[in-house]
Amino acid sequence: AIFCRARQRLVRSLRLASNASMEETGKFGKLVKENRMITIEESNIRYAGAAIIFLIGIYKYIGMQAAGEFNYNAIAANAAGAWILFETGRQSI
Asked: How far is it between the farthest Cα atoms of the chain?
């Protein structure tokens, strides 16, 4: 498990280095400047935001179960917010 994590970190850092060089030159840099693509860092921030919204939704759902009253609009809003953030994170280079 530790070896896999170290390998994943190495692969991630290599991708970040190669993506950083691609952003500065070529068509990828142009797409980022035109806001048609986002960088890996922005993508990771959006994924983290989606995870936080999802966890808040779970927390609220547990509270709803404890109270015995369900607010389906809140459940749908949290799910939609997490899904939208997750999907926008997939626009990365």
From this structure: 56
